[in-house]
Amino acid sequence: MLRAVYPGSFDPVTYGHLDIIERSSKLVDELIIGVLNNKAKTPLFSAEERVRMLKEVTKGMPKLTIVPFDGLLVEFARRMEATMIVRGLRAITDFEYELQMSQTNHKLEPEIETVFLTTSLDYSYLSSTTVKEVAAFGGDISQFVPDFVADTIREKMNRRRV
Protein backbone atom coordinates (compact mmCIF):
# COMPACT_ATOMS: atom_id res chain seq x y z
CA MET A 1 0.00 0.00 0.00
CA LEU A 2 1.40 3.36 -1.02
CA ARG A 3 0.68 5.95 1.66
CA ALA A 4 1.72 9.59 1.28
CA VAL A 5 1.65 12.67 3.49
CA TYR A 6 0.72 16.08 2.12
CA PRO A 7 1.77 18.50 4.88
CA GLY A 8 0.92 22.15 5.27
CA SER A 9 -0.48 24.79 7.53
CA PHE A 10 -3.64 25.18 5.40
CA ASP A 11 -4.38 28.51 7.11
CA PRO A 12 -6.76 28.57 5.26
CA VAL A 13 -7.09 25.78 2.72
CA THR A 14 -7.23 27.23 -0.81
CA TYR A 15 -8.18 25.96 -4.24
CA GLY A 16 -4.46 25.54 -4.86
CA HIS A 17 -4.22 23.11 -1.92
CA LEU A 18 -7.31 21.27 -3.13
CA ASP A 19 -5.78 20.95 -6.59
CA ILE A 20 -2.72 19.21 -5.11
CA ILE A 21 -4.92 17.05 -2.84
CA GLU A 22 -7.10 15.88 -5.72
CA ARG A 23 -4.20 15.15 -8.05
CA SER A 24 -1.93 13.47 -5.51
CA SER A 25 -4.73 11.31 -4.11
CA LYS A 26 -4.97 9.67 -7.55
CA LEU A 27 -1.33 8.59 -7.27
CA VAL A 28 -1.51 6.79 -3.93
CA ASP A 29 -3.63 4.31 -2.02
CA GLU A 30 -4.03 6.69 0.93
CA LEU A 31 -3.25 10.39 1.27
CA ILE A 32 -2.75 11.74 4.75
CA ILE A 33 -3.17 15.49 4.96
CA GLY A 34 -0.93 16.63 7.79
CA VAL A 35 -2.09 19.91 9.30
CA LEU A 36 0.97 21.53 10.83
CA ASN A 37 0.64 23.17 14.20
CA ASN A 38 3.67 25.46 13.97
CA LYS A 39 4.28 27.03 17.36
CA ALA A 40 6.62 29.61 15.77
CA LYS A 41 3.72 31.17 13.84
CA THR A 42 0.42 32.69 14.88
CA PRO A 43 -2.18 31.23 12.52
CA LEU A 44 -5.59 32.76 11.89
CA PHE A 45 -7.19 29.38 12.65
CA SER A 46 -6.35 26.77 15.27
CA ALA A 47 -5.20 23.35 14.06
CA GLU A 48 -8.63 21.96 15.01
CA GLU A 49 -10.40 24.61 12.93
CA ARG A 50 -8.13 23.93 9.95
CA VAL A 51 -8.77 20.18 10.24
CA ARG A 52 -12.53 20.86 10.35
CA MET A 53 -12.37 23.06 7.24
CA LEU A 54 -10.33 20.47 5.35
CA LYS A 55 -12.74 17.69 6.32
CA GLU A 56 -15.66 19.77 5.10
CA VAL A 57 -14.18 20.70 1.73
CA THR A 58 -12.79 17.21 1.01
CA LYS A 59 -15.72 15.14 2.28
CA GLY A 60 -16.48 13.72 -1.17
CA MET A 61 -12.90 12.63 -1.84
CA PRO A 62 -11.93 9.03 -1.14
CA LYS A 63 -8.67 7.77 0.38
CA LEU A 64 -8.04 10.84 2.58
CA THR A 65 -7.12 11.07 6.24
CA ILE A 66 -6.68 14.47 7.90
CA VAL A 67 -4.44 14.63 10.96
CA PRO A 68 -2.95 17.55 12.91
CA PHE A 69 0.74 17.29 13.78
CA ASP A 70 3.70 19.20 15.14
CA GLY A 71 7.39 18.48 15.14
CA LEU A 72 9.47 17.04 12.33
CA LEU A 73 7.66 16.08 9.15
CA VAL A 74 9.66 12.87 8.66
CA GLU A 75 8.78 11.73 12.18
CA PHE A 76 5.10 12.38 11.45
CA ALA A 77 5.39 10.48 8.15
CA ARG A 78 7.06 7.58 9.94
CA ARG A 79 4.27 7.50 12.58
CA MET A 80 1.69 7.47 9.77
CA GLU A 81 3.66 4.68 8.02
CA ALA A 82 3.94 6.84 4.90
CA THR A 83 6.75 6.34 2.41
CA MET A 84 6.13 9.49 0.39
CA ILE A 85 5.81 13.21 1.05
CA VAL A 86 3.89 15.31 -1.48
CA ARG A 87 4.73 18.96 -1.93
CA GLY A 88 3.19 21.52 -4.25
CA LEU A 89 5.29 24.01 -6.20
CA ARG A 90 4.02 27.36 -7.45
CA ALA A 91 7.21 29.10 -8.53
CA ILE A 92 10.98 28.72 -8.65
CA THR A 93 11.24 30.27 -5.18
CA ASP A 94 9.10 27.41 -3.82
CA PHE A 95 11.43 24.92 -5.51
CA GLU A 96 14.57 26.28 -3.88
CA TYR A 97 13.08 26.00 -0.39
CA GLU A 98 11.37 22.66 -1.03
CA LEU A 99 14.51 21.11 -2.53
CA GLN A 100 16.49 22.03 0.57
CA MET A 101 13.77 20.61 2.83
CA SER A 102 13.45 17.39 0.81
CA GLN A 103 17.21 16.84 0.94
CA THR A 104 17.24 17.41 4.69
CA ASN A 105 14.29 15.04 5.14
CA HIS A 106 16.05 12.43 3.00
CA LYS A 107 19.13 12.64 5.23
CA LEU A 108 16.94 12.22 8.31
CA GLU A 109 14.84 9.41 6.82
CA PRO A 110 16.21 7.89 3.58
CA GLU A 111 13.22 5.56 3.17
CA ILE A 112 10.78 8.46 2.68
CA GLU A 113 10.74 10.04 -0.78
CA THR A 114 9.50 13.53 -1.63
CA VAL A 115 7.44 14.06 -4.77
CA PHE A 116 6.78 17.53 -6.18
CA LEU A 117 3.61 18.45 -8.07
CA THR A 118 3.46 21.77 -9.84
CA THR A 119 0.32 23.70 -9.07
CA SER A 120 -2.13 24.14 -11.92
CA LEU A 121 -1.64 27.45 -13.71
CA ASP A 122 -5.03 28.62 -12.43
CA TYR A 123 -3.61 28.66 -8.89
CA SER A 124 0.10 29.38 -9.40
CA TYR A 125 -0.20 32.83 -7.78
CA LEU A 126 -2.38 31.74 -4.85
CA SER A 127 -1.30 31.50 -1.22
CA SER A 128 -3.08 31.37 2.12
CA THR A 129 -1.35 34.62 3.05
CA THR A 130 -2.82 36.36 0.00
CA VAL A 131 -6.30 35.06 0.86
CA LYS A 132 -6.02 36.38 4.43
CA GLU A 133 -4.79 39.77 3.24
CA VAL A 134 -7.63 40.16 0.72
CA ALA A 135 -10.17 39.05 3.36
CA ALA A 136 -8.75 41.45 5.96
CA PHE A 137 -9.54 44.35 3.64
CA GLY A 138 -13.03 43.07 2.88
CA GLY A 139 -12.19 41.79 -0.59
CA ASP A 140 -13.99 38.98 -2.39
CA ILE A 141 -12.14 35.70 -1.74
CA SER A 142 -14.72 33.41 -3.35
CA GLN A 143 -12.47 32.71 -6.34
CA PHE A 144 -9.63 31.57 -4.04
CA VAL A 145 -11.36 29.28 -1.52
CA PRO A 146 -14.52 27.15 -1.30
CA ASP A 147 -17.66 28.88 0.00
CA PHE A 148 -17.48 27.10 3.37
CA VAL A 149 -13.93 28.38 3.89
CA ALA A 150 -14.82 31.90 2.73
CA ASP A 151 -17.72 32.00 5.20
CA THR A 152 -15.50 30.71 8.01
CA ILE A 153 -12.86 33.36 7.25
CA ARG A 154 -15.47 36.15 7.20
CA GLU A 155 -16.86 34.98 10.55
CA LYS A 156 -13.36 34.91 12.06
CA MET A 157 -12.51 38.36 10.67
CA ASN A 158 -15.81 39.81 11.96
CA ARG A 159 -15.16 38.41 15.47
CA ARG A 160 -11.69 39.96 15.47
CA ARG A 161 -13.09 43.38 14.54
CA VAL A 162 -15.60 43.38 17.40
Automatic annotation (TrEMBL):
Q: At which residues is there a site annotated Transition state stabilizer?
A: 17
As for subcellular location, the record says: Cytoplasm
| NCBIfam families per UniProt | coaD_prev_kdtB, cyt_tran_rel
Assigned GO CC terms: cytoplasm
Tell me the superkingdom of the source.
Bacteria
Any one Pfam family here would be CTP_transf_like
Record-stated family: Belongs to the bacterial CoaD family.
Its name, as the record gives it, is Phosphopantetheine adenylyltransferase
Name of the encoding gene = coaD
Q: Does the record carry Nucleotide-binding as a key word?
A: yes
Keywords from the UniProt entry: ATP-binding, Coenzyme A biosynthesis, Cytoplasm, Magnesium, Nucleotide-binding, Nucleotidyltransferase, Transferase
Tell me one GO biological process term.
Answer: coenzyme A biosynthetic process
Q: Which cofactor does it need?
A: Mg(2+)
